[in-house]
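Protocol step 4 of 5: obtain the predicted structure for the target chain.
Materials: sequence only (see below). No template structures provided, no constraints applied. The aim of this step is simply to have a reference model before the mutagenesis design in step 5. Sequence pasted as it appears in the construct record:
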Amino acid sequence: MPKIQQLKYPSDISPGEHFTVFCDIKHPLKQGIVPIQLIAPPNWATILTKQIPINDSTSRFVQTMVCPNKVAIRPYYFVFQSQKQSIANFPITIRKVHQLIITPINLPEFAKEGDTLNISFSIQNAGNIPEKATIGLNQGKIFSQKDTLDVPIGANESFTIFTRHVIQSTNQGNWNYNPILSLKTKDTSIISVVSIPVYGTTRKEDNSWLKFPLEIGGVYIGTKQGDLSTSAYQFDVRGKGFLDLSNKHYIDFTAHGPNQFQIPMIGSYEIYSMKYDFKRNLSVQVGDYNLRLTNLLEFGRFSRGAKIDWRNGAIGSSLYYAKPRFESDLNYQLGGNVSWYYSKNNFITAGYQRKGVLLRNQSFDANVLNLFSSITTAKIHWETELAQSISNNGTDYAIQNNVNWYNKWISVSSNLIYAGKNFYGFYKSGWQTFNSINFTINNHLSLGISHNLTRINPSFDLLVYNSSPYLKSLIGQLNYRFNYRSMLRLSYNILEREDRLEPKSFYYRESFGGLGYDYNGEKFALSYNGRWGNAENLLVPNDENIIKTSFSNAINPQIRLIPSLWLGGIFEHLYTSKYSATNSNTNYYFYGGSFRLNIRPWLNAMATYRNNFTPDAFVQTQSYLSGNLNLDFKHHAFSLIVGQSFIPQAINLGNINRDAIYFSLKYTLKLNLPLAKDKRQGTVIGQLSSNDNTLSVGNVMVSLGEKKVLTDANGKFTFNKIIPDKYLFRVEPNPNFFNVAITPRGPIEVQVKNDSVHTLKVAIARTGIINGIIQLLDQNGNKKIDSTLVFPTIFIKIQNDQGSITTKVNALGEFSFSDVIPGSWNLSAWLVNNQNAFQLIEANQNIQVNPSKTVDIAIGLQSLQRKLVYGSKSFQIKLHNKNP
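Step 4 output (structure tokens):
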């Protein structure tokens, strides 16, 4: 028997894949070369088979095959046969293939504001294994009969997802609506992004003018603490926008005042600021601004002064002077820096700052030098900063290093800050370290661990009320996401918090296990947090006889009563000893509520109430009430803020033990001041009209070049800011314009000139239809039927002074002209390449077309007769056209 040698074949393949099998065959000398067959499994196609003799006893065998597209995942055996006897076999295994495909269906070409779109997506599993996918939609609504959108998809199966989208009304004019459908499986995720042009339904005003947005308003503010009531008025003027038509010069300014420090609330102080930008190269700020440089040098300081930022290519620099407005330890800050951008996202900055320090009745200057670098790639973000402080108190240093590394399934973060005792930057005397690592096992399961140790003193503004307690924590967490709406959270925490202020109001240590659950539905949302463990107040002596068990339960439900209104509740019970002066367990009860109302675009309101807070949340236990109401119209805006809370700044008024009721009422007049008219561009205005009352001229899409707009209710339209040139204007296809013609017919050429207005008038009218048929005639002119006949190529044309239209007869001998303008038309028909075999009867006709009427016509087709004379006899030849 022949023997198979040097067999080569793929061990595994994918469905639908081509592959080739090679081998050498050793034949018995007495038999010579014997034909060999390779038998494949059923439905496996063979493309090529060759057996090539090498010598008298050896041949080379080659066979190329293709695997079926639908095939089970298992080994398949191939058998070599010689004279119908098996001589060898080998297996090929089918690989697992994950392939999900999303295909949008019935997408509209465009949408109008206010439309409701029904968009379908076909989900196909083109792989060969079943998948379970979570379906998500970033906007719009998915129609599903199930509470969860986790759906199984069998191998080589497909199904359709139905979605509904309500297009909101905006003032943006033309914009794009971009719904994104996502599929997340255990191993991968895919998305399908749809982009639908949306057109406003209101006619836009002439915007050939450069306009500057300006807001002018007045504010009435006040507080009440006990028997003390205070109120005051302030003005508020703001504006921001470009100053030139080339968008090179940009300005942003605010004038708000005067100071009303007798009212201790945010916004009672004056603000005078202006920022000027030239292209992207130069930025100048004067007046009040927030100085933010780097973490060590200055992380954020509300100041009055000036700052200049400049950049040219790879080099950038800054100069600044700042006098802090709400910081008692600083007199001024003066400095600058230089940056080198050696790539788009990577740079190095060297800076210098001189500051006047006011500390414990001391006044001295400190000089701070720093070097900062930032590196950003697809997987890593790394910031490093070194700083040196030189002052009368000596020289000291600070360092900050922040690294974030991301991968598909893992992320690592590490942050270190150290500042010496005599370092006079943003941080002083302490250090902070934070490290975390998180793993994403799959789309449902993730876990992580983090460690935080904070014993550093940041120099916050008084505006940033933050006690910044000393903190030590170790947290391990496990999260399981059931679907895109709900998630379970498990954690274990070791925590120590110490008040940085003196005298300390809290200092405790606790360890506990945590259980949390979140659900976010369309009409209901719920958040639950529970924990159980031990707690100890470290401000009092430890007593081993006291049980330090601590637990809490907090639940936050929210319900949507109507699409624009949400109501929520806050309920929490805490049982702990960490705040007790005797280290004994105490019950704390917290409750409250909230509501959110949003009626776009003109009304939104919200309110929150909480009966109390824990001692480590604020400097004083207190109730809290806050609410705001905003009304926003085209040229007018009203805002109301009310609340009740303990305000730390009230310490200056000697009412530290009383909550303050505060309010702010503001009215704003919104203007668009015309600065200059753009004479480099032109405007096209037009009117779409109709004498037929049944034809609507509103919400009809018209285009000028690449720009498209919708007509208003009266059929008027406007194209603003058109660069001078020649453009084609046309009325876009409209499903409501069945049997409707536009006059002038076809695209209209429009010449737009500088600082000019071009006017268009376009009319629409009902049209008629011409339906025709080619009838087969015998030699006597009578109709006949010949099912074997293949119609020759025939063209039909109609023409008059309005123009001409040509069409081709289809395989059934039919033709049609739709949207024909009423009037008299001349019809002509002719054959192509078959004049010797056929002739047309009544190939030229005059047709009268009436509005909304159909004209039926017929044209005859007759075979031509030929005679062959042979001697004294003649024979009639009948021609059959098989190939036109």
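Step 4 remarks: The two ends are 59 Å apart (CA to CA). The first strand starts at residue 3 and ends at 8.
Proceed to step 5.
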